[in-house]
Specification:
This protein is of the alpha+beta class. It is built from 26 helices and 34 strands.
């Protein structure tokens, strides 16, 4: 099996060739210029076509004659999306990458610039930003045109020489959207196919039975199981209830699908389709027999369910919260146990960093004074609902059965043995995004400045693709998730830019439905009927039967299984339990279920220059986005913010943090289970703002009294890394694009524990002299690291050695030990375990090392740093707002707490680097830099070089508009 990792060396120098294929002359992909590489690739056989070109040569005269689109950015808009725009690779491309490290054109050409900001941030100026970012101006200068494709007479797709980004310009609305779909096919055909099968719960049948593939469909399908009729009903509902914009959205979606299918067929006929279709057995490399299944508009709903569930969901987890509450009540009694649990839940911690920091209050999902309808399970009765049934073959044995691959394909044998999407890549608790905006009153130019983007992980190709869309009613450049790219979802318009971060408000509730039997016999926890408004009602069984067989790419032996989810009028069954001895099922009800693509109307409005003209119209557009996101906006005059989401109006007294009884008195207001609709909080009750001095977001809380759906939003949050830096810039004034980018880049290298918690740790330790020489050395190393900024960065670019390597290693080994020693003795095993199940102790770059998500970039979103910080301040007697009812470190005694910290520090110092950083398929044991490093996770056959760790958006914009329409 080939190790699917990033390479530490760059691809060889590339050249371009052309060849004529059905449908026209297409641009060649990049291959090695060395005679050896070229000869070897072409020796693979005539059946393996050389990489094709994408378009005919441009006509510069026609480009000069075109009427330019209004662009008020004046070359002050930049963006970046590594590794590169081109996400398709032919079979020859894949084999060339495996054998010689070559890359298709524009598949990896943004990676080095993205990586270089780590070393270049300190000398960054406005004039050097394009060393690290793309110029995001509209259009392509005539001397920078690489190719032009005309898939229909009413649209052109122009690609620039530097990045190969598609600039799609249509004379009709249909043509513009058709071009967007065609370009998506050119850049992401294989990936779109993967994600429609993930959304439909059919990944193993499509791509192979690898354990990671099984895990991925088992992760996503249970939260959005639909029949084909369900998917079509969502399309029809948008068309019929969304007014003119709804009709237009579905017409645009159909044109987009038509464009994908046009490219799908052309590439199949021309034999320049993605090579993964050969390696997974879909198409024969010699005869070209086989098919890429046509895309349907319902596929877009499936893809939207994956994207929305991954980045725009909010809430859930109420059963686990109930278990930790019960454990706390068991240990301390109901009253004190509830108080202690609330201190860890931190619903409205006054010390938490907020995006809206001027004191505005937006009450939502707050703890009720007198809770009603809370449905806590009996202790020990909760069972997870089974998902997988009827396993056969390798679904039981995990056996491998490599096929007898043709000699020409053997270099690619087993490339998907670990999954077509690597394990842990789409963990819903990884990623997120950040944003930094400063209003014009504090900038050098007098215009707002923004540095923002989504932090969606690192994939090859990326989940998103860059594009420019220009056509009737559409004018934007930016990113869209592949497969739902009818409109730019984050990017810039003619005189404004916008972006988003994932929000965390609660739009998903858990209900306890009482089980019953239709014949009146006693119900059991296995019963498949439930009481709905006093009527014993059958659950609806949702099923997927998947089977697979080995292929060249995935050696997993033949096998099959059946996925089963029970659907009720209160959502999808997730657990079984008893309450006061009566059997119940817990269900998860999400406001966006059956509304996976309704947000398309909001994105349509953001792309429409006639609709989005200022901050108020931006906020109006964002109101139409049902998923939980924080939206940010900047033009030449104003910076603004709006929190979107279908926030349900809950019944009075319902506690959104815990399960609730499935009874009419506790339902969402105006709840209709047929289409899963309800009354939603009005826009005025969503956090929103225009013209605040600055805005930051790193998935922190939005505003006072606006409660989050999860643990971990307390006194220390990674948002503090941005807030402190931007606040200082604003206080000084004269903020520029470069200075705001530096603030982001500095935060991206900072260890949150070192900056925010280490000062208190050292203060406790130094409350008395440290007499042990080894411990004193460790304390000095940690303090020197803190004083230098607590950064995890190389001594120089390419050294692969951290500046304070010993201190970083000590902190990585110490943190989990000190947290457990600080809290577990007081909380006890059961409660400590239950709380860590709701919020993991650590999320440093190294803490994620292993099979569930190493090398992912995003870090410090989830952890116990706020708990440790507040507890140590209580020990020290320092000011604490809303202190915990108990102090845990040393049971509140400073000397005992100090002993705990020193004991765990001594243990951490003794842990060798090879144990702190245990190594994996990409890194040797003890390699600290590599353990942190970012590796783009291959979603196909192409891998990319490893780059240094940054905690930074994947796609990022730097914008400052000097003028407005």
């Amino acid at each position: 099996m080939r190790r699917r990792t990033g390479r530490l060396t760059s691809a060889r120098t590339a050249r371009r060739t052309t060849r004529t294929l059905p449908g026209g002359t297409l641009p060649a992909r990049t291959l090695s210029t060395t005679a050896l590489a070229a000869a070897a690739v072409f020796a693979l056989g005539a059946a393996l076509l050389s990489p094709p070109s994408r378009a005919a040569a441009a006509d510069p005269e026609s480009l000069r004659a075109a009427v330019p689109v209004a662009d008020h950015c004046a070359s002050q808009c930049d963006d970046i999306l590594p590794p590169g725009e081109n996400g398709n690779a032919t079979l020859a491309d894949i084999l060339g990458n495996i054998l010689f490290g070559t890359h298709p054109a524009h598949s990896s050409d943004q990676l080095a610039r993205y990586d270089a900001l780590v070393a270049g941030r300190n000398t960054l100026t406005d004039s050097t930003l394009t060393t690290f970012f793309n110029d995001a101006s509209f259009g392509v200068p005539a001397n920078q045109v690489e190719s032009v494709t005309t898939p229909r007479p009413d649209v052109t797709i122009t690609r620039d020489k530097q990045t190969g980004v598609p600039h799609i310009k249509g004379t009709t609305r249909y043509g513009t959207e058709f071009g967007a779909g065609f370009a998506a096919g050119q850049d992401r055909l294989w990936m779109m196919d993967l994600f429609r099968h993930i959304g439909r719960g059919e990944l193993t049948s499509f791509a192979g039975g690898a354990l990671a593939n099984q895990g991925l469909e088992q992760q996503f399908w249970p939260s959005a199981p639909y029949t084909e009729a369900d998917l079509q009903a969502q399309v029809d509902r948008i068309r019929t209830t969304g007014g003119e914009r709804g009709e237009l959205a579905m017409a645009d979606a159909q044109a987009y699908v038509d464009g994908i299918n046009a490219y799908r067929q052309k590439s199949k006929d021309g034999r320049y389709f993605p090579g993964e279709y050969v390696l997974t057995g879909k198409i024969d490399s010699i005869t070209n027999v086989g098919e890429i299944q046509p895309f349907r508009i319902t596929d877009l709903i499936s893809i939207a369910s994956v994207v929305g569930g991954q980045f725009g969901g909010g809430g859930g987890g109420e059963v686990q919260a109930a278990l930790s509450l019960l454990a706390s009540q068991q240990k301390y009694g109901v009253a004190e146990g509830t108080e202690i649990w609330e201190s860890f839940r931190q619903r409205d911690d006054p010390e938490a960093v907020l995006t809206l920091h001027e004191g505005e209050s937006f009450p939502y999902a707050r703890k009720p004074a007198q809770p009603r309808g809370t449905a806590l399970p009996d202790r020990g009765s909760v069972q997870n609902e089974p998902l997988v049934y009827d396993r056969t073959g390798s679904a039981v044995t995990r056996a491998k059965a490599p096929v007898n691959a043709p000699k020409k394909l053997r270099p690619a044998q087993g490339i998907f043995d670990d999954g077509v999407v690597p394990p842990g890549s789409l963990d819903p608790k990884r990623g997120m995004s950040n944003a930094l905006l400063v209003s014009g009153a504090h900038t050098a130019s007098g215009n707002p400045v923004a540095v923002f983007g989504p932090q969606t992980g690192y994939f090859a190709p990326q989940l998103m693709m860059l594009q420019e869309l220009q056509g009737p009613g559409i004018s934007a450049r930016g990113v869209a998730f592949a497969g739902v790219g009818m409109y730019v979802q984050m990017g810039r318009g003619q005189d404004y830019a916008w972006s988003a971060t994932s929000a965390a408000q609660d739009i998903t509730d858990t209900y306890a439905i009482e089980l019953c039997e239709p014949d009146g016999s006693p119900a059991t926890k296995a019963s498949a009927h439930y009481l709905y408004r006093s009527v014993c009602t059958p659950m609806e069984k949702m099923e997927r039967v998947n089977s697979w067989k080995p292929s060249v790419a995935d050696s997993t032996a033949a096998g099959s299984y059946r996925l089963q989810v029970w659907r009720t009028k209160y959502g999808l069954v997730t657990h079984r339990a008893t309450i006061d001895g009566k059997p119940v099922a817990y269900t998860s009800l999400r406001t966006t279920y059956r509304h996976e693509a309704d947000s398309i109307i909001g994105f349509q409005m953001l792309n429409d220059p006639a609709q989005t003209t200022d901050a108020a119209s931006f906020q109006e557009a964002a109101q139409h986005i049902g998923y939980a996101f924080n939206w940010f906006y900047a033009d030449s005059r104003t910076a603004a913010f709006y929190n979107s989401g279908l926030n349900p109006v809950r019944a009075a007294g319902v506690d959104a943090a815990l399960p609730v009884r499935a009874e009419p008195a506790y339902e969402w207001q105006d709840y209709d289970p047929g289409f899963n609709t309800a009354a939603y909080t009005p826009p005025a009750e969503h956090p929103r703002s225009t013209g605040q001095d600055y805005y930051i977001s790193w998935n922190n809380r939005q505003a006072k009294d606006y409660n989050t759906a999860a643990f971990g939003f307390g006194a220390v949050h990674r948002g503090d890394l941005l807030d402190g830096r931007v606040k200082k810039l604003v206080a000084t004034g004269g903020v520029t694009r470069a200075s705001l980018t530096r603030a982001m880049a500095d935060a991206a290298l900072t260890d949150l524990r070192g900056e925010q918690v280490l000062p208190e740790l050292l203060k406790v330790i130094r409350s008395a002299a440290v007499t042990d020489p080894q411990l004193n050395t460790a304390v000095q190393q940690l303090d020197a690291w803190r004083a230098a900024g607590s950064e995890r960065r190389e001594t120089s670019q390419g050294s692969h050695t951290y500046t304070h390597a010993a201190a970083v290693r000590i902190m990585d080994a110490w943190w989990p030990r000190l947290v457990e020693a600080e809290f577990e003795p007081g909380l006890g095993d059961e409660l400590y375990g239950a709380l860590t199940a709701s919020l993991p102790v650590d999320e440093s770059p190294a803490a994620s090392h292993g099979p569930t998500g190493a090398h992912g970039g995003s870090a410090f979103q989830y952890g116990w740093w706020g708990y440790v910080d507040k507890d140590l301040r209580q020990v020290l007697g320092d000011p604490v707002q809303t202190p915990s009812p108990r102090t845990y470190c040393g049971n509140g005694t400073l000397s005992t707490c100090r002993d705990t910290l020193l004991t765990t520090l001594k243990a951490a110092v003794a842990v060798p680097a090879a144990q702190v950083y245990p190594g994996d398929d990409s890194c040797g044991a003890g390699d600290q830099w590599c353990s942190d490093a970012i590796i783009h996770r291959a979603l196909g056959g192409i891998t990319h070089p490893t780059i240094s760790w940054q905690n930074r958006p994947t796609y990022q914009q730097v914008v400052e508009f000097p003028s407005h329409r």
